[in-house]
């Protein structure tokens, strides 16, 4: 699991960092560039551009450092709260997730669709809208290229309950180190912070998925059906969580 956590965080940090929109980069450039040009009495725009880039990178690195320090402390508290909530409400959470899986499998049966993969995906749009819902896709062997997937959506709301409060708290505490922090910078901070939460989702799913899948496939009289359940970001390589009909072979000690 440690390896999986590092893989998720490193991968997603790169994706979100490289995913900063051109518009947001332009905003950052205009803000920094205007200040540089006012002080560039020599009129050397080439040197000004280099300074803009350097200032922007320094600011970005500072934001990274501040959010890393903040989330290490704050999420340690949130993680314990999430665990306690799950322990107290485990049966209800399991029933709700199982209900989503049941609806998906029953829909596939009605359409006479063979399900070979169940993919739980993090949706970038749900992070923007702050709904934090996951897509559950019931697909054939082509996975994301399946022409007729069946979709369900599920939100483990208790994991994300305090995200916005934490981002507000971060903005207040970071003000001394990062002056005039922008909304698009906070969006990037939120994206980074969310991957702590999505890692908790993955741990939750590793417990919920086997129980839900076995219960539903038993009810639907599909004793020999073969299916792989995986988790990841939409349309990208996912992490296998469970393979029906086999033991934990896909989670060998080297991958934990």
Protein traits:
single chain; 256 residues; alpha+beta; five-stranded mixed sheet; 62% helix; 11% strand; disordered N terminus
Order of strands across the biggest sheet?
3-2-1-4-5
How many extended strands? 5
Q: Sheet with the most strands?
A: 5 strands, mixed
Oligomer: single chain
Report mean pLDDT, rounded to a whole number.
78
The rounded distance between the terminal residues' Cα atoms is: 4 Å
Radius of gyration: 22 Å
N-to-C SSE series?
HHHEHEEHHHEE
Written account of the structure:
62% of the residues lie in helices and 11% in strands. The protein is α+β, with helices and mostly antiparallel strands. The chain has a 5-stranded mixed β-sheet, with helices on one face. 23% of the residues are buried. The N terminus and C terminus are likely disordered.
Topology readout:
Layout: H1 2-18, H2 22-38, H3 45-110, E1 117-122, H4 124-129, E2 134-139, E3 150-154, H5 157-160, H6 163-174, H7 183-219, E4 228-233, E5 239-243
Parallel strand pairs: 1-4
Antiparallel strand pairs: 1-2, 2-3, 4-5
Short synopsis of the structure:
The chain is α+β, with helices and mostly antiparallel strands. The chain has helices at 2-18, 22-38, 45-110, 124-129, 157-160, 163-174, 183-219, and strands spanning 117-122, 134-139, 150-154, 228-233, 239-243.
